[in-house]
Write a structure and sequence with these properties.
By secondary structure, the protein is an all-alpha fold. The chain folds into 2 domains: 87 residues, Orthogonal Bundle (Recoverin, domain 1), CATH 1.10.238; 123 residues, Recoverin, domain 1 (Orthogonal Bundle). Helices cover 63% and strands 3% of the residues. The protein is built from 14 helices and 4 strands. Strands 1-2 form a two-stranded antiparallel sheet. It holds the Pfam family EF-hand_5. Belongs to the MICU1 family. MICU1 subfamily. This is Calcium uptake protein 1, mitochondrial.
């Protein structure tokens, strides 16, 4: 039972953190007739591919003892949510991505609330801690970055959940962000705050507030020139994404599953039932 719970948590984390584009591509690969829908077995294959992209998923791949083969993988609560009790329903990419979006929202909200926000805001240092979690930054440099943030925001105004969510939406698209920034670099432009906001609008369709950009630059602009290099920002955020897929956040399995249950109730049940 412990193995099953651990696997369920890992599937949940993969679903919550994997960029939507990855799932969209995988869905299209298994949508053989092009009708925009996949059945339960096809979805299991999509999940298997997504999990194989992380070392955690690879450790459990095709092990009957973990219930992670296509046949025994039905223990996943997700399949019941998406395909109904008889597992004969159909799942569309649109409905799945909406479920994933709300799931990511709820997981981030849990992490935000864990910092005990005051008047709906967390401190700049708390936001910095969220960004640097699993970043792989060495402890000495990490301490220096946190000290730099404290220096800049002794009496900060804090950040709202919307500001935090917009920035994390931006980060979920970090590979596309990297591609977009490469064009700026080829054109001789640097990554300043205005450029970051423009890339966020173009790639992630979100607005980054001036304040959230101020916090990010205070944290990552080590030489204080008002610009970020790939080494200073993008590479660290890529490491964060990969490490975050492999190390569980300290939010508790129960609360994570509650978030998934809430999403399932709100978004999945209507389209999980077999079509008449």
């Amino acid at each position: 039972m412990k193995r099953i719970c651990r696997l369920a948590k890992e599937i949940f984390k993969d679903t919550a953190k994997t960029p939507q584009r990855n799932f969209e591509i995988a869905f299209k690969m298994f949508d053989l007739n092009g009708d925009g829908e996949v059945d339960m077995e096809e979805f299991e294959q999509v999940q298997s591919i997504i999990r194989s992209q992380t070392s955690m998923g690879m450790r459990h791949r095709d092990r009957p003892t973990t219930g992670n083969t296509l046949k025994s993988g039905l223990c996943s609560a997700l399949t019941t949510y998406f395909f109904g009790a008889d597992l004969k329903g159909k799942l569309t990419i649109k409905n799945f991505l909406e479920f994933q979006r709300k799931l990511q929202h709820d997981v981030l909200k849990l992490e935000f609330e864990r910092h005990d926000p005051v008047d709906g805001r967390i401190t700049e240092r708390q936001f910095g801690g969220m960004l640097l979690a699993y970043s792989g930054v060495q402890s000495k440099k990490l301490t220096a970055m946190q000290r730099q943030l404290k220096k800049h925001f002794k009496e900060g105004k804090g950040l709202t959940f919307q500001e935090v969510e917009n920035f994390f939406t931006f980060l979920k698209n970090i590979n596309d962000v990297d591609t977009a920034l490469s064009f700026y670099h080829m054109a001789g432009a640097s990554l300043d705050k205005v450029t970051m906001q423009q890339v966020a609008r173009t790639v992630a369709k979100v607005e980054l507030s001036d304040h959230v950009c101020d916090v990010v630059f205070a944290l990552f602009d080590c030489d204080g020139n008002g610009e970020l290099s790939n080494k200073e920002f993008v590479s660290i955020m890529k490491q964060r994404l990969m490490r975050g897929l492999e190390k569980p956040k300290d939010m508790g399995f129960t609360r994570l599953m509650q978030a998934m249950w809430k999403c399932a109730q709100e978004t999945a049940w209507d389209f999980a039932l077999p079509k008449q």
